[in-house]
Amino acid sequence: MIFAGYALKHLGVFRVEDAKVLSRIVVNLTLPAALVTGFRSFRFDAAYLSLIGIALASNLVMLFFGLWWSRGRDAATRALCGLNVCSYNIGCFVLPFVQSFLPVEALIGVAMFDAGNCPVNSGIAYAVVSARSSGEHIRPRFVLNKVAHSVPFMTYLVLMILSVLQISLPEPIYQIASTIGGANTFLAMLMIGILFEVRVDRRDRRQIAEILILRYAGSFLMACLVWLSPLPLLIRQVSVLSMMAPIPSVTMVYCEKCGCKPSLYGVLNSLSLVISLALTFPLLLA
Questions:
Q1: Backbone torsion region of residue 14, taken as left when φ is above 0, otherwise alpha when ψ lies between -120 and 50, otherwise beta
Q2: Is there a contact between 193 and 3 (Cβ–Cβ < 8 Å)?
Q3: The predicted structure's pLDDT at residue 36
Q4: DSSP state of 165
């Protein structure tokens, strides 16, 4: 799917500008529908609450670390660093591995980790980055205003409340959402392909390498802390695998809103998939 987007761009079928249209479709339509579909079988389990806390803590630590590291640089660079060092692609990456290699109970753990991960990559990270990169103080009112205008975050919030209250949506809604949400992965990967550009100048290569090293070094340190903790084995396994996940595709949408360079965040997303694959297989075999 990534290669199709890349090839069609070079054949003249797509332009880089077309990725902006795809990003709006993803963030406002297919991603919210995919969230609705994912909550169809989700059940809130108090035994896995620690995973929500771990996901939230790791996301926020990495978010503010990225902003601190890029302090003093221009707004687009700060946004690029802050958005790409935090958040994890759970649904399209971690879930298939967990289904294949870990006990069935681990699927609940993955859902709970994503419950702490999703609010950050669906709007909180964008709100915080927008405030800091524009020189604003991070005021609760500013953050709330940003997340309130994030369709994925508001969808997630409503679904989580319904899940806690054990309220299910009507079956036709799930069926329609499943049809629309089924296109999310394809459109997101196609968008990566359209934005992907292997020709980057030396300065951009250094910036890409810096962000990827920050992301994976920080995630590895936090994964080690969780692994050495007294938490149950299954929770530690799910946490470590999740922290090695690649950058979520929705991050590119917020990078575009923050004025980041398309070739940079396209390459970052693509390379993170390769790195995460290289890290995940050894972890599963260990």
A1: beta
A2: yes
A3: 85
A4: T
- Structure token pair of residue 281: 């297989």
| DSSP helix/strand/coil, 52 | helix
Q: Specify the pTM.
A: 0.73
Distance CA 278, CA 256 (A): 28
Residue 241, pLDDT score: 92
Q: To 5 degrees, how large is the angle CA 151–CA 243–CA 272?
A: 80
User: Which tokens sit at 67?
Assistant: 């902003």
Label residue 153 by pLDDT band (50, 70, 90).
confident
Taking Cα atoms as reference points, which of 106, 108, 151 lies closest to residue 126?
151
Using alpha carbons only, what angle is made at residue 177 by residues 172 and 183, rounded to the nearest 5 degrees?
145
Q: Please state, rounded to an integer, the average pLDDT across all residues of the chain.
A: 82
Domain of 143? 2-285
As a whole number of Å, the end-to-end CA separation of the chain is 30
Would you give the DSSP letter of residue 169? P
In the block, tokens 């630590």 appear at 61
Q: What are the residues whose beta carbons fall under 8 Å from the beta carbon of 220, sequence distance 6 or more?
A: 243, 244
Q: What is the CATH number of the domain that holds 149?
A: 1.20.1530.20
If you search the block for the tokens 């103080």, which residue do you land on?
Answer: 137
- Token readout for 76 is 């687009």
State pLDDT tens for residues 26-48: 878 887 888 788 777 766 666 67
**Token pair in block for residue 56:** 């939230």
Number of domains in the chain: 1
Q: Are 274 and 106 in contact (CB under 8 A)?
A: no
* Number of continuous H segments (helices) and E segments (strands) in the chain: 16, 0
